[in-house]
# Entry
Amino acid sequence: MMRQFRYRAVILSYFFFTEYLLFSGEISRFIAPGFAWLSYVTVVLLGVFLFFAQRGAGEGPDAKRHKETHENLRTEMAKLVLLIFPVLLFFLVKPVAITDLNTLAIKPLTKKDQSVGTNAILYAEEDGFVHVNLYGLSLIADNEPLLLTRYKFKTIGRVSKLSAKKLTLQRILITCCAADAQPVEINVAVDSSGPFKKGEWLQIKGKAELREGILTFMPDSIGRIPKPDEFYMSLYDSIPKMSEEGQPSGNRP
Amino acid sequence: MNNFIIILISILLEALPFILMGALLSGLIEVFVTDSVTARMTSFRTVTSVFIGSLMGVCLPMCECGSVLVVRRLIKKRVPPAAAIAYMLSAPIINPVTLLSTYTAYGWFKKMVLLRAGLGAVVAVLIGLLIHKFFREGVLKKRGGYELNIVRDQKLPFRVKLSQALTHAADDFISIFSMLLIGATAAALFKAFSPPAVFVFFQRGGWLGIPLFSALAVLLSVCSESDAFIASALHNVFDIPAQLAFLTLGPMLDLKLLVMYKKVFTGKVFLILCLAPPVVIMSSCFLLRWALR
# Structure
C-alpha cells in the first residue's frame, strides 16, 4: 500500500511541477523555447499514468500479486523525499537562470555557418546599429569578417571578468536545455573598468574587430540595462537578421 | 548551488518525455507483443538478428534513457540479448532526430553524419556479438522486492489490456527514474561545481584529445539530440576523430546510463557495457586519426 502511495506521489509531484513550470513561463529557465513542447508530452504521459494505470490490474481470472513485504513508513517517506528532492529544491531555493558558467567556453571564432553568407546585407535598425546577440556576432566574425568593418553593432551581455582596460561580457548559449549550456564571451575595450561591476548587464554599441583572432568590441557607448527576460541565447535564434529589399540598411556605405 | 539545481532539473525535464515514452513502449510490448512475434526474432541466425537489432533504431527511434527500459522488456520477452543490446547502443545514435541535429551542427563537415552513424552501428554490432559469445541468457538482474505480475489473457477486452500495459509502464518508469535521478545528479554536480582548471585540463588537443573528449562525453551526460552542437563548437580544440569519439561514446555511456546499466544488467554484462564501447570507439578513432595523417 505504502509502495503504491509512493509511486503515485512521485508521478503526481512531477506532473504538477511540470505543469507549473509550463504555465508560469518558468520553463524558459531550463529548456530552450523550441523544445518546450517536450514538457507537454511529459505532462500528458504522466497524466495518463496517473489516471489510467493501476486500474484493471488483476481483473484477469488468473491475476496474482506477490505478497508485499513489510512496509516501514519512515523508509517509504525517505524514499519519496529522495525521489522528489529536485522539486523540493526548486521551491526552497527558487533558482534563477544559469550564471557564471566555468565549462567549455566557445571561443569567439566558430566554424562557418551557411546562414551568414559572403554577401550578406545585415539589417540595421533606425538608430543605425545592427542588433545581434554575442553568438550571432561571433558567427559574423567567422563567416565574413569584412562585415565587421561595414557595420556598427549593438549587443548585450553580463560582465563576467574585469581588468584594467578591458571587460568581458558573457552570455549563455543553449541548444535544447540548460544542461548543454555554454558560455560565449566577448572582450570590450574600455578606458577604465572601474565604473563597472561583475554581474551587471550592459548594452554596448559600437564596432567590433578581430584582434589577434579574438573578437573585441570598441564601444561608442555602454549603458546599464536590467536583466533581460530572455536570459539565454538559443542556438536557433542567433542567426543575424538579414535585410530585405527596401529595408533600411543603416550605416552601410 | 543555483547552477546545480538548474542543470539537474533541465536534465530531468529533457529526459522525462523519452523515459516515459520508453516506459509506455515497454508496457505495450509486454501486453500486446505475443510470443509468436518474438519467436520469429529468435529464428534468425545470431549475426543477422544483431544486425537487425543495430538498425532498428531508424524505425524505432529512442533516446538513450528510454532505450534501456525497452531493451529490458524485449529481453524478458525472449528477444536474443545480443540483438536487444545492439539496438540499445545504436538507437540513440542512428535515430532520425539525432542524425538531423548532427547534420545541422556539422554544416561545415556533413560527412560527420555518416561517420557517426556508421561507427555507432559497427560498435553496436561488435558489442552485440561479444554479448552473444559470453552470455546467451541471464543478462538481466532479477528485480528485487515487489514484482508486478499481471498475467496476460488474450481474451480480456482491449480496454483492460491497455490498462495493464499502462500499469506495467508506470511500474517500469518508477523503477528506472530513480537511476536517472542519481545519474543526473552526478552530471549536474560535475558541471556546476568543477573548478575552471578541470575544464582547462580537458581542453587539450593532439593525441590526448580522443581519450579526454571521450571522458568528457561520459561526464557531461548530454542528450544525443544536442551533443553535436557542443562537439562542433569545440572544433578548434579537438580534431575530427576526437569529436567523433565524443559523439559516439556519449549516447552509449554516460553517468545516467552507468547507473541504469548497473540497475538492469548483471555484473559481468555491466562491465562489458562500461569497458567495451570506450575501447572500441577510441581504437577506431585513433585509427582514423592515423589514416587522416
Notes: Chain B has a mean pLDDT of 84.
